Amino acid sequence: MLREIRPAILVLLLLTAITGLAYPLAMTAIAGVIFPKQAQGSLIEKDGKVIGSALIGQEFKDDKYFHGRLSATSAPDPADPSKTVPAPYNAANSGGSNLGPTSKALADRIKEDVEKLKTENPSVPVPVDLVTTSGSGLDPDISPEGALFQVPRVAKARNLPEARVRELVMEHTQGRMAGLLGEPRVNVLALNLALDEASK
Amino acid sequence: MTVIGWFQIILYCAIVVALVKPLGWYMTRVFNGEATFLSPVLRPVERGLYWISGVDERREQHWLTYTVSMLLFHVGGFLIIYGLMRLQGLLPFNPAGQSAVAEDLSFNTAISFITNTNWQNYGGESTLSYLVQMVGLTHQNFLSAATGIALAVALIRGFSRSSMRTIGNFWVDVTRCTLYVLLPICIVYTLFLVWQGMPQTLGAYVDATTLEGAKQTIAVGPVASQVAIKMLGTNGGGFFNANAAHPFENPTALSNFVQMISIFALGAALTNVFGRMVGNERQGWAILAVMGVLFVAGVAITYWAEANGTSTLASLGLTGGNMEGKEVRFGIVASSLFAVITTAASCGAVNAMHDSFTALGGMIPLINMQLGEIIVGGVGAGMYGMLLFVVLAIFVAGLMVGRTPEYVGKKIEAREVKMAMLAILVLPLMYLGWTAVAVVLPSAVASMANAGPHGFTEVLYAFTSATGNNGSAFGGLTGNTFFYNLTLASSMFVGRFFMIVPAMAIAGSLAGKKSVPPSAGTFPTTGGLFVGLVVGVILIIGGLTFFPALALGPIVEHLSMNANTLF
Known about the structure:
The structure holds 2 protein chains of 2 kinds.
Chain A: H1 5-34, H2 36-39, E1 43-46, E2 49-53, E3 74-76, E4 84-86, H3 104-120, E5 141-142, H4 144-158, H5 162-171, E6 173-174, E7 185-187, H6 188-199
Antiparallel strand pairs in A: 1-2, 3-4, 5-7, 6-7
Helix pairs in contact in A: 4-5
Chain B: H1 3-31, H2 39-53, H3 63-87, H4 103-114, H5 124-127, H6 130-160, H7 170-196, E1 206-209, E2 215-218, H8 223-232, H9 253-277, H10 281-308, H11 311-315, H12 331-344, H13 359-370, H14 381-401, E3 406-407, E4 410-411, H15 414-440, H16 442-445, H17 453-467, H18 482-511, H19 528-562
Antiparallel strand pairs in B: 1-2, 3-4
């Protein structure tokens, strides 16, 4: 048995060097050359400044923007670091609400949001993705129904014809991959950027 | 449920099954020590590694030596992770300036990664430096996966050999598995993932100014290289807190689909390795059929439950299923399917928050883990777990017809059955025992995020996941406390090693037996009757063990939900 001690140390160290250092560092170098944009995080720049990532959702509260999904991410409380405070779309601390199906807090929250949205647009049913938090708290997408639901509000805030805004939503709707995988969706940041462009 | 949803599920199953034979063929060659198309490149590396480490690749080991080697290997792995986490503040590759991780959390995480659990009491982007993510976690993702596969192969050799004292060489099995199987696939896989949008950089977190003018710090890192092995090796420990729900850890529907395939690929192929090594591939297909029956049943229930949603959503007229804790790009079907796959295998990666699943939708992942993660299972671990149940089923069949039970030419006797029972019984002892302790300790109860039966399920899920070396969680539970860090670590340790050691004892005793040719009285183990028998044994043993606990958790919760009782 004693003669297994040498391999135990050396096989471990060598495989660690291969899989823990050589492999990730080599992949970083190769990926940086072949797919530089993705490797950096698919960042979007505007006037030379980073305004976000195409893959990471950000918080929109203004009426003139389409709103993303609810986000349950948090950040340390500045007053007391042992506690946390809600900080939607905190891309340095991802996470979901983790509220279960019989949670009263969840039921109350959804109810309140549904009522708010119903006053905003009473003509169509409220899409479920607009009143539920995403798993990561950073979901960049909403459903096409979720976007169309917000068209009247956005059009009014921007003084644009509803048809024009609806057209933009259609342009930014991505279908299922190969018509099969995943779900149809609208990237909120991309749509809002296009909207700003159209309002100029 | 939709037609297109079921199409995705069927396509998934078809691709996994199509991969079984080629991967099984390749892995059999690797573990038989034969040359492969990668040998010209990798063989010199392999030989150099043996030369430096003093490994004689022709010298095989007795099962005890094999097991001790495996344990020594883990002691070293533990020390590396623990040391790196405690010292990360002083070490390089730390642009976010993360400071030393606390003792109990470091201990928990080190145990978690050497046991292939990858329980996340740590919060990836908010706790760990890039060095710990790479050297500590990525390397152990490789090695715990390679160990699992090596052990499964050793047990398979026990069945396939006749009158031999040895079951292979642990160092050779681990090295070959890492170099020839895991690493080449991961290199291609990493590039695919980056192409899909996954970051792979050593640069610091990015500060962005959002369209509305707010500041957003975006965590990045060497994500893709870790995610590749995290999925392929059924490890499941996330680079980010939100794991595969995070858009950087799972950017598209395609990356999600490929990740799901990679969880099952090697585990399913091991059934074929088994068939090839015992000389009859149909033996392997029969085992895969057992797994398939249980898997499809689980998917159907979870998909149905999540698509139906909750009573709260229904009362407000919301349709489209239970989207709380799910991402739009995956939707109901890909989230439900992922949840069942990740718990059937001992992966534990999540692309939706299981804590927010409906009561029944969340119960299936729990059951999958409580059955011992034998539905494909962790790479290697699922195979030896399933073979333990097969031993038991064969024993039951032998009792019914009054003959000495045989499986693939080996007589199954008292020693094998005792060892199989030991391995199978120790799991519920851990998860039921610690759950019972936790729910009477006020400090442990305080960690629950949800009240009522759902809170109980959170605790039960935590200990089940730890014992099963899964690592997924009902994430609301605050697990980073002294009590949970230590008790969960003990569950992971016992769940891994008290299963491995009896399995290796069986391997040793089987290898020493003579192979007997099948006779007219041999119970055929390639047909539907055998499949039905094994499924029955698994469900009866499982059901008797954990049904009472399920009744207190998800079943009560489902009934409460239907009665509109909220907590």
